[in-house]
């Protein structure tokens, strides 16, 4: 649980949570600018998830 709390504090827009007793899931909050084109921000969202995964692995 501490790892999830740390990730949620450290990485903007990332949400780490327990899916069940054995699995932690990572999600991002959706943020949209004035032009809601998926291609404009999908790479950034995936980058946030990837950074969260790497940090989570380092902490476990």
What would you say this structure looks like, in words?
With 60 residues, the protein is of the alpha+beta class. It has one domain. 52% of the residues lie in helices and 17% in strands. A two-stranded antiparallel ribbon has the order 1-2. A hairpin with a 5-residue loop joins β1 and β2 (24-28).
Annotation keywords:
2 strands, 2 helices, 17% strand, alpha+beta, 52% helix
Note the gap between the termini: 11 Å
Radius of gyration over alpha carbons? Answer: 13 Å
Number of separate domains: 1
What percentage of the residues does DSSP assign to strands (E)? 15-25%
Strand and helix order: HEEH
Number of strands: 2
Helix content: 40-55%
Largest pleated sheet = 2 strands, antiparallel
What's the arrangement of strands in the largest beta sheet?
A: 1-2
Give the overall shape, derived from the CA principal axes: elongated
What is the structural class? alpha+beta
């Amino acid at each position: 649980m501490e790892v999830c709390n740390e990730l949620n504090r450290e990485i903007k827009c990332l949400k780490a949570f327990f899916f069940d007793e054995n699995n932690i899931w990572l999600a991002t909050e959706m943020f949209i600018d004035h032009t809601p084109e998926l291609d404009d921000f999908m790479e950034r969202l995936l980058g946030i998830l990837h950074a969260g995964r790497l940090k989570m692995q380092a902490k476990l």
